[in-house]
Structures are given as structure tokens and as C-alpha cells.
Amino acid sequence: MAEEDRMVKMEVDYSETVASTVPECETLVANGKLNEALEKLFVLEKQTRMAGDAISNSKVLVCVVSCCYKADDWPLLKENLTTLCKKRGHFKLAVTKMVQRACEMVPEVTDKTRKLELIEVLRTVTEGKIYVENERARVTKTLAEIHEKDDELEKAAKILQELQVETFGSMDKKEKVEFILEQMRLCFETKDYIRTSIISKKISTKYFDSKETDELKLRYYRQMIALNLHHKDYLAVSKNYYEIYTTPAVKENDDQWKEALQRVVIFLILSEYDNEQSDMLARVKTDNNLSKIPYYQNVLTCFDTAELLNWTILKDVYSSHLKSKAGQATTPLDTEGNWEVLRKRVVEHNIRVIAKYYTRISLSHFAKLLHLELKEAEDMLCKQVVKGTVTAKIDRLDGIINFSKARDTEEILNSWSGNLNSVMNLIGNCNHLITKERMVHQVN
């Protein structure tokens, strides 16, 4: 066990001596006698350390760095910080207090060169010391901010990534989340999207359940929206906006919740169909607030109804309402690329509807129902079959699409057996009824 980790019993209380010596040293520093003040403090530091008086020793160390700072002697400040942190037998409490006092100096320093030197010294002396990990994290964040102001984003991101704040036991949960959000932001701005996604998983969304975390919740989900938009994961974007929509702070503002709910609907209909998307659509459709934005409610109903949609009519009716107007925030459907995605979703919806109502259909009639050329209709159908959304086979010679699902021999035998049992049950019931009628007739 290291010497600084041992519990030391206090033999002498130097609190009164420290209380009288510290003001004297501060007076000497004010009169330009820094070396004389430090000599007194170093003697007292050794006495308090040898006597096991951790509280008094902390005050002495804090006074040492404060005197150097007030005297504007930066070389001596850096030297004493390094020496006192490395000295054997020092108390963790004393080192922590001294480092905390030095960290308080960082925002007060106006000269950039001196600030960077002080930060580097603090990062060096706190490296590997768990009891000052919070202080190291804070000065590292300050260093990253300085590099960011100098347009050195990659350097700032790399420095901040060194911190594994999720493992810091003494750091407040809120501060941890703020650090991780900052790491996510810098990684995203440096286009390191994979690392951004990895870092985002360090935050448990259960933390955002309380109302006090609304600001951090909004920051987190806005960053996730930017990340998911990059990956074109529209369902994830819709879920992110739904979390923003359900935030109490957003619910209190009509304009904010309407905008959030509108984007939930838009990205939901832009996302590919699967069980998760279908479940999300059913959940959003039951929201009472949806009736307050009728055009979005109607377009959502269109995709939830097993009826064919006409893309031309749909675009003509809803384009003026789903696009932003002058003075309003832009919407996802302001870009032609997203309108093309929506057109594909309409075609996919129509294919599912046709597969539901038809078992066999000619390829030409299929293309006519979709309002597509024969080749494009066939390509879209093939993509849906590959994804497993529908089951279909195309007879190219006859130009027939068969939507019936192929059954294996075991399934056919089970079906035949079930049908046979049903027939035998019906025969048994008929026999019983005939026998009953005969008995009634004989009695009469």
C-alpha cells in the first residue's frame, strides 16, 4: 500500500498555527517577499504532514499555490504544483484541495499561453489519481474548448475522448451526461459517425425520465436526430422526435409540440415498413393531439388503410401543407430527395395492399394499379420480396404474379388432416341430428 494511502493518526493540532501563519504569508507576498513566505509555508507544511494534521496541511498547500498565483510567479507555481503532488506521504485531501484551488485559477487567467501551461501541469499531476479525476476531466474539457476556438476540432475531440467519465464514481450524473454529450457533438462535427454512435450508448435514456433533465434530454435527442439523419434511419428519427414531443417542456409550448409531432408523422411515413414501424404508426395514430394537425392525421391514415394510394393526387393534395411556408421552420419534405423517398413508400404500400387482395394478377394490370412502367413495377416487387414484406412469384412466360405462399409437404398434410377432421365432425353432427329427428318422429 502506498504511503499516501495509509491512515495517519493526528498527533498535534496545527490549526491555530496555520490560522496565524497564512495571513502573515499573504501579507509578505503583498509586499513582494514571496520566497520568505514560501519558506515559512514549507516548514509548516512539513510539520503538519509529519503530525498527521490533514486539514491544516490542506490549508498550507492551498496557500502555497495561492501565493505563487498572487505574486504572478508562474514558473514557481508550476514547480510547486508538480513537486507537492509528487511528494511522498502527502494526504489525498491536501492534494485534492490544492488541485481544486489551481483549477479555480484556470478561468481567471487571461493570457492564453499561461492558461495552456497551467492546464498541462494540472493534467500531468492528476494523471492516474482517482481522487482528482473530476478536476482532471474539467480542465481537459476547458482545453478542448480552447482547441475548438482555434478551429482544431479533431484535436479537441481526441483530447475529450480520453475521458471515460461514465466510470467516474464521484462525478455527478448530470455532469457525466454533459461530458458525454460534448464528446458526441465533437465526434459528429469531425464526421466520426461510428464513434458518435458508440458514445451515445453510454447514456441511459432512463435518466431523462425526470422533468429536471428536460434540457439535457432535448440536447441528446437533437444530436441523435442529426446522427440518424446521416444514416437515413428515418424510423429512428421519428422515435427521436417522439421523445422530444413527449418532453414536458415541449408539451407546454403549442408551437414546439406541433412541430415535433409533425416531424414524427413525416419521418414515420418516410421509414420502411416493418413490424416496428407498423407498431409505431398505430401508437401515434391514437394520440389525441393528432386531430389538431388534420393534414398530418389524414396522410397518416392513408398509410394505415388497406387501400391503394394515387401518388399524383396525394402529392397535389398534401404538398402545400407538408412543406414549410414563409417564415416557418423548414420541414423534411422541403427537399425533393425526401419526396422521392415518399413516392417509393407509396408504391410499397400499394404492393402490400395488392398482395392482400389478390392471389394471382397479371403483370401488366399490376403495373397499371401502381401507375408505373412494367420494368419499374417488377423491380419494386422484387425488392419487397427480398425484404420479406410480401411473398410472390412471377411467371415471366405468362406474365402472371402469384402472391400465394408456397407450402411445404408437411404443411399441406397438416391442412388436409385438419380439413378431414372437420368433415368427420360435420358428418357426426349430421348423424346425431338425423337420429334425433327419427326418435322424435317415432314418439309422435
Which helices and strands occur, and which strands form pairs?
Blueprint: H1 15-30, H2 34-51, H3 54-70, H4 74-86, H5 92-105, H6 112-126, H7 133-149, H8 153-161, H9 173-189, H10 193-200, H11 214-230, H12 234-245, H13 248-251, H14 254-270, H15 275-285, H16 294-304, H17 311-322, H18 336-357, E1 360-362, H19 363-370, H20 374-387, E2 393-395, E3 400-402, H21 409-443
Antiparallel strand pairs: 1-3, 2-3
The strands making up the biggest β-sheet line up spatially as 1-3-2
Tell me how many strands there are: 3
Radius of gyration: 36 Å
Poorly predicted regions are 1-7
Global structural class: mainly alpha
Describe the structure.
α1 runs antiparallel to α2, α4 packs parallel to α6 and α9 packs antiparallel against α10. The protein has a 3-stranded antiparallel sheet with strand order 1-3-2. It is mainly alpha-helical and 444 residues long. Helix content is 69%, strand content 2%.
Compact summary:
The chain has helices at 15-30, 34-51, 54-70, 74-86, 92-105, 112-126, 133-149, 153-161, 173-189, 193-200, 214-230, 234-245, 248-251, 254-270, 275-285, 294-304, 311-322, 336-357, 363-370, 374-387, 409-443, and strands spanning 360-362, 393-395, 400-402. With 444 residues, the chain is an all-alpha fold. Strand 2 (393-395) and strand 3 form a beta hairpin.
